[in-house]
Amino acid sequence: MGQNIDKRSYRREHSELYMKLIQYYRDGMDDDAQSPTSSSEQRQSQSDDVVKVFIRKRPTFEREIKAGEYDVVTCKKHEIIVHDCRMHPSMKPNLAYVESYKFPYPNTEVFNEKSTTDQVYASALKPLIDYVASGNVGTMFCFGQTGSGKTFTITGLVKLLSKDLFTQLGNQGKFTVTATCIELIGETAYDLLSDHAEVALREGKNGEVVICGNKLCALNNGSELNELYNYAAKLRETHATKVNSNSSRSHYICRVFIDDPATGKQFARLTLCDLAGSERNADSNEHDIERLKETAQINSSLMALKEVIRCVALNKENEGSKVHIPFRTSKLTRVLKDCFEIDEKKKRPHTVVVATVSPLACDTEHTINTLKHTCLMMSSDSNMAGEKMVVQDILGADPYQKKTNILKPIAKMTYEETLEWIGSIQKGKFKKHLTKFPTSMDGKALSRFPDKRLQQILGSESLGLDLRKEIMNYTDKINQQKKQQTEENRNLSK
């Protein structure tokens, strides 16, 4: 009987073939596809989306290469591809294949491992700081798995934005600037500037969330803001994980308030949020009960934030049909509620998400998960999921022997995947009806809905029948593909 082997060990054992496959893909790319974009191109490429998502890939370190790891992430200017190196479904030791997931970011940027923090700032943060300095509300989130370079990236960005913000404010006149720094551990908020004193969240007269008991520090220049941010960051809750020996286990929120003494009112507000590193259960299976509970709370709050951002984006796209925004799902989304609501000036806050990813084969699942979450945060329907391209290959043979597009059965689709599929069929005929479907519906529930239920949801008998026909046609395609795949696998195993 053969020895069992996990997929990470399998990836390392057959690294030469997998690297050959990935290089074959890269050789077919345009010459400038992986080159960093210039600042002017970056600034001009942005749209008016409420939520802008930028991706940064960190370099592969020498110690990781010596340990047998290799780079499975390919970057283009507005696209990122993750090459998932897998064992063949037949589980035979001499077979393997690669699934490449393509995630497009047409309105923002993807930064490869050669990009600098200055380039990331010029594209991602400079427009946001300009917006805040003009008297508006802006928020930056840094999101990514533990060990993906998230804290390194946000530290460099804060240094640049601190100087830029105060320079612009100084050119406009005299403002009073204060800041507060809190961290969220589970469902409890603590003031980092008051010896980790617990602070309470209260709801104001107009439904806004007010942090009670937190300390405000006056700031006179950009250096003081940068120093305050770094000082508070060092006081965060950290613990060793399987991925990182000094992983941040809390959400760190720094809020900068800019007031106009002449009017006595708030002129602008900037929120900087370094989210706790997310982990898969497989990477936390050596933790004690407390750490496991902590990891579950972190992942739950990140999912809640993703859902809030997605709903905000949907509301902007569908002005006539408002989607409920679940701010109360977690303490994190409650604290950040005013970062997404239209302010007194009737202007919508701007939000930037900077997501960091690891290039390593052992982190493939993390990277794909991070990118799927960021795609759901964006407002463009075309970005709701990555395009999967399956590449099969017998070990030792020529790379990219065969390409097949694998369809996912409707019954296995999540709520988000189900909506994405419905919105894509018949040239987007059902897009404007997506908000009518219940949030408890996944693909399995959709496939079981009777015709009358579909007609009731869509408000039209003809639309209900059209959707039923599409479900049946898609199911037929799945069955045909399964039959074809079975035949191909049988031929490969001979």
From TrEMBL:
Gene3D superfamilies: Kinesin motor domain. Its main location: cytoplasm. It comes from the Eukaryota. ATP binds at G144, Q145, T146, G147, S148, G149, K150, T151. Residues 29-49 are annotated as: Disordered. Belongs to the TRAFAC class myosin-kinesin ATPase superfamily. Kinesin family. This is Kinesin-like protein. It comes from Naegleria fowleri.
